[in-house]
Amino acid sequence: MEATALSVGKSVLNGALGYAKSAFAEEVALQLGIQKDHTFVADELEMMRSFMMEAHEERDNNKVVKTWVKQVRDTAYDVEDSLQDFAVRLKRPSCWRFPRTLLERRRIAKQMKELRAKVEDVSQRNVRYHLIKGSSSKGATTSADQSGLTAAAIFGIDDARRAAKQDNQRVDLVQLINKEDEDLQVISVWGTSGDMGLTTIIREAYDNQDVQIRFRSRAWVRVMHPFSPKDFVQSLVNQLHATQGVEALRFLIVLNNLSTIEEWDQIKKCFPNNKKGSRIIVSSTQVEVASLCAGQESQASELKQLSVEQTLYAFYDKGSPNGEDSVKRVSILDVATTSIDDQIAPHGEITDDQYMDADEKKVARKSLSRTRTCLGALEELQLIGRNREISEIIDLVSNNDNSQQVQVISVWGMGGLGKTTLVGGVYQSPKLSDKFEKYVFVTIMRPFSLEELLRSLARQLHEGSSKKQELLENRINNKKSFASMEVDKLTEELKRLLEKKSSLIVLDDFFETSEWDLIKPRLLPLLEKTSRIIITTREENIANHCSGKHGVVCNLQVLQQDDALCLLSEKVFDDATYLDEQNNPELVKEAKQILKKCGGLPLAIVVIGGFLANRPKNAEEWRQLNENINAELEMNPKLGMIRTVLEKSYDGLPYHLKSYMNISRRRLVRRWAAEGYSAETHGKSAIEIADDYFVQLKNRSMILPSQQSFYSRKTIDSCKVHDLIRDIAISKSREENLVFTLEEGCSMNIHGPIRHLAISSNWNGDKSEFEGIVDVSRIRSLSLFGEWKPFFISDKMRFLRVLDLEGTSDLQYHHLDQIWKLIHLKYLSLRGCLGIDLLSDSLGNLRQLQTLDIRGTYVKALPKTIIKLQKLQYIHAGRKSDYPQGEIDSLMERCLGGAFDCATCCLPHLLNIDGPSCKALTRRDACTFACCVQFPLNVTGADKRGVMVPRGIRKLKDMHTLREVNVWRGKNVLQDIGRLTGLRKLGVNGINKKNGRVFCSAISKLSRLESLSASSAGFCGCLDEISSPPKNLQSLKLYGNLEKLPVWIMELQHLVKLKLAGPKLLEHDAAMEFLGKLPSLEILVVSGSSFQCEELDFKSPQGGIAFGILRVLTLSVSGIKSVKFDEGAMPKLERLQVTGVTNNEIVFSGLGFLPSINEVQVGVYFPLDWDRIRAARDHETQYKIIEEEKQEEWRKRGELKKKIQEQLAQNTNEPIVTVD
Q1: In this protein, which residues make up the domain named Disease resistance R13L4/SHOC-2-like LRR (predicted)?
Q2: What is the pLDDT, as a whole number, of residue 802?
Q3: What is the pLDDT of residues 644-653, one digit of tens each?
Q4: Which phi and psi (to 5°) does residue 608 adopt?
Q5: Enclosing domain of residue 1090
Q6: For the residues of 1081-1100, what is the DSSP string, one character each?
Q7: Within-domain flag for 1007
């Protein structure tokens, strides 16, 4: 707990210090005449931070220290709030500026004196109570963390030098390599004069005849930067193809140019200790890296002296002072030369060129598979040791015992056992892929709602229907919106969707038996007898109740010790067999103690394994972990025991990650940046730093990916947090008074000021209750989930910086009046608030605003006052659509359309006709939208997907992201955009013949642009005018009738993602050959009316490779009858998605030439024979015809799937094939 308080305190202090010592704050202090007090406060805060670092190093479980840290944190908050408030209020315009300024100066001077006294008092308490021990204590040696390894290495070298002079003790590199020892040994090579001569010296030993005879399996790999695990493994496989890899034989691997320990952590996963006396030689210019690769328990001996300045050293196990005994770990070989050429970079060292047989191919595939497993998700890790349970449940699901009732299989066990992961593995098992016609997986949401559960079931079942069936429902059954359906209607819809269908339904996470009692009569009678339901719960009585007499109950147990050890080993070392009694007896001993405390709970094992994976991997480190938490763990052997383990993992996080715990990655990282938890540094923006933190949390298993993104460079769109981790984060937040969640049944006992407030959708209190629970005067952030209420915003929220209203319902234009008064606001999100259609000029009051997110609203124009917001960096606006709006040429049509919209919006409210869907909407809101937004847009014919920005936007020099901007009618705005030279992301729509050249000119000026989205009803060749495209462009999206690709795309050497929506590529072969040469392209999406041809051939240049690193390919192939892949085209393609196929009129060929393919998705549309249906005289005959066509459709889909599977039969990845 103390670690959390310290970390949070340091995080807050960093923010306060950053502002207090900024040039702006110092200038304000100078103007106010309070510079002395300001300097004193800033210096005291810096000293407090140093003391807190001392306390963090000491890990002192002192409750008084914890209290002091909280006081420091609160003081830091007050300092930052006050300093910023001084600056903001002093610069507010007023007609009484001079007398008002005098009054403000007196008030501020008084407050500053009080603030100084408070800071001084808090600082003195540390001295008064001797809270931090000082530099003489154990915790004072903070330099050990930063330079301990380097110092140890230098001292070792000095000892080796003295030994060489006195006793002439030297060792030889070839002898170290050929040492008789069955264990895998790592020899690190480091040059005191950089990398000069390293390669040559290692090469000399590598080519030694005795070494060649002893090591038949050899490989030399230069580690490329940035490091790519897949490329590394592929290089190994290419060189080891003539041998039996790294498992059956003694191997020698040289890793040249290793630069970071993170690279080594990934590389070492590929090399098991095969007990054959294998060797790994690592070359690095970093002494710390070389030392860590070989191990910390070592001593040095001089290897040889090449000149006065260059000497070679060997570091090895302390038990072998003369280098004659078995060497467990050989540490650093310090190498340097004066004039030896170091440009040798050998590849493909295997001399035997014999053809690779089937067994050898299997070895190569196994190596690649091993790396994929090491990079797998947490859910895959949690299935270790669960093979028996998975097989049993699959057998139960598959068993057709002619039962007269639907069988319910209940899986129960405590939280953290991996119940959801287990049933997910069953649900996705290939053994069940053809057993059922319908598949549904639903997680029960809280609070429980039968209507929402049935709606989720119906929605998933409907989304699984064919397009033909959807069309039929639209025309015959008048397809209804699920959102407006009530329970009875949803039940009827489920009956229709499930009728005569064998189904597998998973219902995850029941809390009460009453929940099943509500679901059972609505669901079971609708299912075929061969259907199966799997439910999960934490309680045995619920499992028995759900399964009943005819069902089966499975009690998921904790992992056995062997499986738990494998899981821990996999998580820490990425090798399930690394921890064994013979090779690592001391480590195994400590591991068993850790596993005893984890109680066999997979979640606890994985989380604490993630913690240990980032710590030194030695028995002493693990022993300290056991000793520190032993007393607390023994007190509660049940859930509390596991909770303590998880708390230890939480406390082990760096302080900048402690503040972070289905969550949108986009929303999360933007909030972190806005809250100040990430700051711009080393040329990276605050958002990019926050993204790095997100990845770190994922790698530590503190968050889990919940939605993978195939079409994003970030790869993860959203994450989730396990129940126990969430409980711990909430508990710690409440202890520190960091976050308060206002929800049904929440505690009313709040001690101290609240800084962050979240209002849950299930809280239904009124204004008096809200004001009675929450003191909003110190709130820094407010997050709302659910329905808007006007009293949520108050004039008392003087210091509110973050207001997140994303997805809030019932928020209307007139509610924003209170928001414009929040002058400290830095982050405002109205994303998805459908009631917002206009922003008033009062937006200009928010001078501190950095992020404005109005995406998904009906706002079509930004007010002129936005140019006053000099700190604004991110504008997210517009509505998502892949297809641009066409022009309406007739002015009369536009005017009539605008008048109709005005009448539609205004008339019901003028007549007081209010509906339940617009209860918060007023006459003012309706008329404002119709007359000020909709009518002008219709008359001008502007593209409605973006927002219009005022002239003068060029004044916002800090702008980082600007999208989507509507430039339909203006060249001046494009000229302004061209002057925002710091822009990284830009989205523009409304490009036409009149502004095309200006657009191209503007883009040519944005040299730092990384992402560009451009939309037009017709580009008309205007894109060719871009003379100098942004060299760092990584993402490019072009929406419109593009007939020819611009030539300048070939200059985009860093382009990773390319999306073309609605193009009509006439020269398709030339276009694909053109794109195939882009060196960095990983994602290619071509949708809409893509190709004006019948055959599409992805060719590879003679003797070369096309689309060398492409991972994802999505194509719209309407009208195309053949898609062919040549050998050498797309060797890294993992996912292929093809849409627009009609009646199976397409032939795929060459799929076998895609060695990395993991998934193939084909969307097929089968049009109905409406003439035949209409010819039928009655509904019964019509339904019979439709059923016949459905059967034929099912057969054709199966045929296409079978043909694709036949081409992929030899692929070792076992790709998933889906034909929808």
Answers
A1: 779-891, 946-1165
A2: 93
A3: 445 544 555 5
A4: -70, -30
A5: 1064-1219
A6: --EEEEESS-BSSSEEEE--
A7: no
